[in-house]
UniProtKB/TrEMBL annotation:
GO terms for molecular function: rRNA binding; structural constituent of ribosome. Residues 46-82 are annotated as: Disordered. Belongs to the universal ribosomal protein uL4 family. GO terms for biological process: translation. InterPro entries: Ribosomal_uL4, Ribosomal_uL4-like, Ribosomal_uL4_dom_sf. It comes from Phaeocystidibacter luteus. This is Large ribosomal subunit protein uL4.
């Protein structure tokens, strides 16, 4: 499969790049995508929620009233969950929401997500970006030239590019990631996936060897 390379002015550069069909043109496995996205979101949860149980509440353990003769329920402690200020029964405790996912499933999920984006014509191949200094205005002009200034997008670069990353930080709808960091969630969450020329080979090297 071949895709046209777009320059930073949003025009055809006259070059084409070949995409590996085993990475960008497979039959998408939606369940694998679901599992990988679910794991990603689960890993984002802090799991620090906590309430005090009756054993942890600081209240008197003195019997509130006599056992019989009051016409009320019999109880011996105000720490119970039935009383205002008492402990919570079966409340949340700190926990890790993460779960294990087979590496082959994660690779299949990323291949499926990329293939789905290509199939839906939501992938742009862009020439490599090279900013001499962080320039928000320059990054904004590129997004505008690509028609993405008001759309959600993910720009994938081959190597860590500090200047490009710093230039993109003020754009809530656009995120810059390296090919090695690209996740299934980021692919699916992007309205348009922008792949720089240098990122394609790295993505294929990671996903075609599994």
């Amino acid at each position: 499969m071949e895709r046209t390379v777009i320059n930073t002015q949003g025009k055809d550069s006259g070059r084409k790049v070949k995409l590996n069909d085993g990475v960008f043109a497979i039959e998408p496995n939606e369940h694998a995508i679901y599992l990988d996205v679910k794991q990603y979101l689960a890993n984002q949860r802090q799991g620090t929620h906590k309430v005090k149980a009756r054993a942890e509440v600081s209240r008197t353990t003195k019997k509130h009233h006599k056992q019989k003769g009051t016409g009320g329920a019999r109880y011996g402690s105000l720490k119970g969950p039935l009383h205002r200020g008492g402990g919570t029964a079966f409340g949340p405790e700190p926990r890790d929401y993460g779960f294990k996912l087979n590496k082959k499933v994660k690779v299949l999920a990323r291949r499926s997500a990329l293939s789905m984006k290509v199939k839906n014509d939501q992938v742009i191949v862009l020439e490599d970006l090279n900013f001499e200094a962080p320039k928000t205005k320059q990054y904004a002009e590129i997004l505008k030239a690509l028609g993405l200034n008001e759309k959600k997008s993910v720009v994938v670069v081959g190597d860590t590019n500090k200047n490009v990353y710093l230039s993109s930080r003020n754009f809530e709808g656009s995120k810059v990631v390296t090919a090695s960091e690209l996740s299934t969630y980021q692919i699916m969450n992007a309205g348009t996936l922008v792949l720089t020329e240098g990122s394609i080979e790295r993505i294929e090297n990671v996903l075609s060897q599994k």
